[in-house]
UniProtKB/TrEMBL annotation:
Family statement: Belongs to the glycosyl hydrolase 3 family.
Sequence ranges assigned to domain Glycoside hydrolase family 3 N-terminal in this UniProt record: 45-346
Residues in the signal sequence: 1-18
Region annotation Disordered: where it falls in the sequence: 103-125
GO biological process assignments: carbohydrate metabolic process; peptidoglycan turnover
Taxonomic placement: Eukaryota, Fungi, Dikarya, Ascomycota, Pezizomycotina
Organism (species): Aspergillus fumigatiaffinis
Pfam families, per database record: Glyco_hydro_3 (PF00933)
Record's compositionally biased regions (Polar residues): 109-119
Keyword Signal: yes
Protein's UniProt name: Glycoside hydrolase family 3 N-terminal domain-containing protein
InterPro entries per record: GH, Glyco_hydro_3_N, Glyco_hydro_3_N_sf, NagZ_Beta-hexosaminidase
Length: 353
């Protein structure tokens, strides 16, 4: 997105209704999840009440009725008193290869793309395939591509073929092509996991435990962050941050760090789009309280979307309540939060309803 924060805030303010509440505003920032193939009644009630910003889908949510399920969810949201004419964000991980929530393309993994005879062209094809698969199921956002530059064969990203390759140039060219083709089909792309997990060892999984990537800032910028510069130049809509700690810049996980989010990503790289956390329930965040507390910390650091992906509707509710309270108590910078709301709404306006 190429809008200034001032313009985004003005656009949001102009289109918000007089009845918009703090809870409704906070809800825009919370992505919920649910168990099984059918959304529970509690989630539908929250959606109809304007208390949901979007959903993330996992394999257990997928069946032949998914397009109808998503259409009904969007219809339920349209009946909300806080409906603003834009669809809810419906997202999943459709990276390719082994990491595909929905049946269909891309069948090639990022590693296979990088090893092909024409990686950029193949990556472009997989971006189109991902968009086609997602769009026909009513999914409007993809938490892909992965921009990690892997260091060693069999490490965290390479083990499952999730990295395009071990050079910044290869990863950047493939990511650029994937992003442009997928977003050309009106499906949001997400560059992840900033500033990069390419140096993470095979057992360094932030979903399970704290991970530290102890590289110098020069190497991080030269190798790991370089593909993000290309992705931003390609107009990537969203960036997901990593839960790893990078001591070269901060002792906090990147997704809870103003230095990484506001300083490195927004100021140094000039990213104007939407930021999204990795799973807020990740084991890497054990020292940072419960999920609700972590959601507030992420918002304080400058994250836009909070990903509540434990397949438990009450998780999203708890985060929403905590964000609402934090805003009312001025524990979160209102101006910065409103700018995030504006970015989210500007992105949602680009989507087909």
């Amino acid at each position: 997105m190429k809008f200034s924060l001032l313009l985004l805030s003005a656009v949001y303010t102009a289109t918000a209704t007089a009845t918009t509440t703090t809870t409704a505003k906070a809800a825009t920032h919370v992505i919920y999840s649910y168990p099984g193939p059918s959304p529970p009644a509690s989630l539908l009630t929250l959606i109809s009440s304007g208390k949901v910003g979007g959903l993330i889908l996992f394999g257990e949510n997928i069946d032949a009725n998914l397009p109808t399920t998503i259409a009904n969810i969007q219809k339920t949201y349209a009946s909300s008193p806080d409906y603003n004419g834009t669809p809810l964000l419906i997202m999943t991980d459709q990276e390719g290869g082994k990491v595909r929530r929905l049946p269909g393309g891309p069948t090639l993994s990022a590693k296979q793309v990088g090893q092909s005879s024409d990686p950029a062209s193949t990556a472009a094809d997989t971006g189109t395939e991902a968009a086609t698969t997602l769009a026909k199921n009513g999914v409007n956002a993809n938490l892909a591509p992965v921009l990690g530059v892997y260091r060693s064969a069999g490490d965290f990203l390479d083990e499952y073929g999730r990295s395009y390759g071990n050079t910044s140039e290869l990863v950047a060219s493939c990511a650029d092509a994937f992003i442009r083709n997928q977003q050309g089909q009106k499906v949001i792309a997400t560059a992840k996991h900033f500033p990069g997990l390419g140096a993470a060892g095979a057992d360094a999984n932030t979903d399970l435990e704290p991970v530290t990537i102890d590289l110098g800032l020069d190497e991080l910028r030269r190798v790991d962050e370089a593909p993000y510069s290309a992705a931003i130049a390609a107009g990537v809509d969203m960036v997901m941050t990593s839960w790893a700690v990078y001591p070269a810049l901060d002792e906090k996980p990147a997704g809870l760090s103003q230095k990484w989010i506001q300083g490195e990503l927004r100021q140094r790289h000039g990213f104007k789009g939407v930021t999204i956390t990795d799973a807020i329930e990740a084991g890497a965040l054990g020292a940072y309280g419960d999920d609700a507390a972590r959601g507030v910390l992420a918002a304080q650091a400058g994250m836009d979307l909070i990903l509540a992906s434990a397949r438990n509707v009450t998780q999203g509710e708890a985060i929403l309540d905590a964000l609402t309270k934090a805003l009312e108590n001025e524990e979160v910078d209102t101006e910065e939060f409103d700018a995030g709301t504006a970015r989210i709404m500007a992105l949602r306006r680009t989507l087909h309803v």
